[in-house]
Amino acid sequence: MSSLRTSIEQRATQGSDPITYVHVQLEGFIDAANYPLFEKTLEKLLDSGRFHIVLDFKGVEYINSTGISGIIRFHQQCASGGGVLVLSSVARNVGITMHLLGVTSVVSVAKDVGEAEKALKGIALDAETGTEERKVPVMAEKSGPSGTVALLLPRQGNFANICKKRVEDRGGKTFLYSSPPELLQALDTIVPDLVVIDQRIPGSEKLVERIKLMPRHTLASIILIHPRGSEIGEIDGFRVWENDSLVDPFDLGNLFILAESEIRRVSRDRKLFTQQVRFQFDSERDSVEQGLSLGGALISKLPLTETEKNALQSALKEGVDNAVRHGNKESKGGRVTVNYVVDPRRVTMLVEDEGDGFDHEFFLSQIEEKDAFDRAKERMREGGRGGLGILLMHRCSDRLEYLGKGNVVRIEKALHR
Q: Which of 178, 171, 172, 179 lies closest to 157, judged by CA?
């Protein structure tokens, strides 16, 4: 499940001559879908004159090449403003990608926030605790994963053959295709861990959606290669998200680093999940209907009774409706994001809007009361938010909770296995 959460706190370094800095806690994935949030968070800090920044990566499980390029860019902007950007608590798998792309030779990497504060004050990090220590285990990592990769690339020129040979040299099985029908026909035979799709190939526009809806291939990672000038964070009404992406032109080495990282992640995910789909849509009526239609198609395949499926679809519809009306205030440009995750025991749906949240604890505290329905109607008669939607979602699921400030609702249902 791909998501990114950020929290910002103003702090001061310990000891004499304290330096005020911003501690940014990051949790989740910095990938194609979440990079705009990562970028916006840092841009706001720089625009407000905050140039001493610690990026705490303790909860980050993955970062793509775009995120790494952003770190280098923001590091340079902090330096230009008379400050410094420091990374702390970087997990090993994330550090591998950073090191291979040269981040550790440019940006200070500290083992924890305490070491990061030393770097902010200009104290060099020891080889035992800082950047230098990370170089040794990173280089000792295995040369490459042995997953299966499907490449949908143009036949013209040598690009496709170079990619195929390079992946095979790293220990993986690689299959090269030049048309969407050819790729789709082969999926059940090769069962890929990773699919690389060049969107310059005609007919490739809907491949992400088609592959992610195939139960056997839903966990396969998809990397898109976008045409020159593409805005990778944009959605045209409705979008099923890929796992990562590159925009032409790009460094070929970045593609291979992403491929290795994704194959490792997929290997871990297959042990935990049976399906993962992330889709997003704006608040236009047609887009919302597309989102609900996709959600209904996913729910229809679950091992549940028809009554339970219908109830779960009602819960999803109510969650989306609340996100559009209350969260996004029916702004047509407001986005709704749905993360749909199935593991052997349960299905989880997270519906997220772009609003400011609400007092969800009050409404959740009311839903177990015997007269919850009557109380909700009374609040509505008084012109307030009644909470009937929350009550409906609660009764249609096994677990309902709101996350953070209340702009993410988590709906869970146990499965019959």
A: 178
At a CB cut-off of 8 Å and minimum separation 6, what does 3 contact? 28, 29, 34, 339, 350, 352
Contact 366, 387 (CB under 8 A): yes
Which pLDDT does position 54 carry in this prediction? Answer: 95
Q: How long a stretch of residues is the chain?
A: 417
pTM of the model: 0.67
377 — phi, psi (to 5°)? -65, -40
Domain 275-414, what fold? Heat Shock Protein 90 (3.30.565)
Matching CATH number, 148-269, of 3.40.50.2300, 3.30.9.10, 3.40.980.10, 3.10.590.10: 3.40.50.2300
What's 4-139's CATH class? Answer: alpha beta
pLDDT digits (tens, 9 = 90+) for 168-219: 877 779 999 999 999 999 999 999 999 999 999 999 999 999 999 998 999 9
Return the closest-CA partner of residue 290 out of 364, 359, 206, 370: 206
For 127-146, write each residue's pLDDT tens digit.
Answer: 444 433 333 333 334 455 57
